[in-house]
Amino acid sequence: MGAARVATIPPATRRWLNVGVAAAILGVLVWRVGAGPFLDGLRAIDPWALVAASGLAVVTTVCCAWRWTIVARGLGVDLPMRTAVAAYYRSLFLNVTVPGGVVGDVHRGFRHGRDTSDVGRGLRGVAWERAAGQIVQVVLTVAVLLALPSPVRAVVPLVALGLVALAVGVVLALRTRAWPAIALASGLVVAGHAATFVIAARSAGVTAPMSELVPLSLLVMQAAALPNVGGWGPREGVTAWAFAAAGLGASVGVATAVVYGVMVFVASLPGAVVLVAGLGTPARWAGARDG
Question: By residue range, what is the domain housing residue 51?
Answer without folding.
Answer: 37-277
